[in-house]
Amino acid sequence: MQQDHPTAEIVVADDDRAIRESLARLLEAEGHSVRMVCNGAEVLEEQRRRPAGLIVLDLMMPGVDGLTVCRVLRSEQDRVPILVLTARGEASDRVAGLDAGADDYLAKPFDPGEFLARVRALLRRCAPGDTDPGSGGTPERIVAGGLVVDPGSRLVHHGREALELTRTEFDLLELLARNAGLVLPRAEIYDAIWGYDFGPDSKNLAVYIGYLRRKLEAVGAPELIHTVRGVGYVLRSSADDPGDEGEPRR
Questions:
Q1: Minimal CA–CA distance to 151: which of 204, 167, 62?
Q2: Are 82 and 101 in contact (CB under 8 A)?
Q3: Which of 34, 164, 176, 224 can pair with 24 through a Cys bridge, CB separation 3.0 to 4.6 Å?
Q4: Is domain 9-126 annotated with CATH 3.40.50.2300?
Q5: Contact, 239 vs 193, CB < 8 A?
Q6: What is the band of 3 on the pLDDT scale with cuts at 50, 70, 90?
Q7: For the chain, percent of residues with pLDDT exceeding 90
Q8: Burial degree of 243 (CB within 10 A; 0-12, 13-18, 19+)
């Protein structure tokens, strides 16, 4: 059956055999090819032997854990998208995984539909030619709120300071900067970044907004990302006239 989304060879790493096999079945039903491993050392070995298109990585594994795997791969300049699985939804676990270089996270237990949505979003954002749907030339830099966002190089600068962003963080900041001054509803942001609205109870977007705010503050940027209660988020500098909390996207 023809798939309407990118497929890839995916490494699934978890020391729990039942979880490994259930994730493999979900991914194979979506048309992906899956290699299963049970520890971090095997992830590194597999990735060096035959690079995968995506890695699903449990953080808590014996021996070489998921955080170490992320750090080693990123130190080797391997930009393979990494979706980390955490046993708890605590902020410290999420922050540790993202700081180590993961692109997205999912706390156990999770909904199979949400897991597949995260996989599709990462593969879609990594697909060649998907960084800019415009003219097909070099994507133009976006200047907003004192930030310079370069979709071509996927770099963000505030003055002379560069922001170290994961793939998901960059995509979210680019979306807000591209629509600077406009209030983007939560559902629209979820659809643009993850391709799936996880519902009003999901804290995933708020986690990434908080993480972006901390990284912007760390490079001396003023408060740029504002919450519009009951609607969504807007990027604007304090020098901009907020008007009536920005103009919501219709």
A1: 167
A2: yes
A3: 34
A4: yes
A5: no
A6: low
A7: 58
A8: exposed
Each residue of 224-240: pLDDT tens digit?
999 999 899 999 986 55
Q: What CA–CA distance (Å, rounded) separates 237 from 221?
A: 9
Residue by residue, DSSP assigns 156-212 as EEETTEEE---HHHHHHHHHHHHTTTEEEEHHHHHHHHTSS---TT--HHHHHHHHH
Query: Strand, helix or coil at 46?
Result: helix
**Annotated domain spans of the chain:** 9-126, 142-248
For the segment 111-166, what is each residue's pLDDT rounded down to a tens digit?
999 899 999 989 988 766 544 434 455 678 999 989 999 998 889 999 989 998 88
The chain-wide mean pLDDT, for the chain, equals 86
Are the beta carbons of 121 and 98 closer than 8 angstroms? no
- The packing angle between helices 17-29 and 112-126, to 10°, is 60
- Cα separation, 53 vs 48, whole angstroms: 12
Cα 225 to the center of its chain, rounded Å: 17
Please give the backbone phi and psi of residue 17, each rounded to the nearest 5 degrees, phi first: -60, -40
The set of residues, in sequence order, having a beta carbon less than 8 Å from that of 230 and lying 6+ positions away, is none
* Beta pairing class for 54-58 and 9-13: parallel
Question: Domain 142-248: which topology?
Answer: Arc Repressor Mutant, subunit A (1.10.10)
Q: At what angle do helices 204-218 and 167-178 cross, to 10 degrees?
A: 80
What would the DSSP string read from start to end of 123-169?
HHHHSTT-S--SSSSSPPPEEETTEEEETTTTEEEETTEEE---HHH
Q: If you search the block for the tokens 């605590």, which residue do you land on?
A: 90
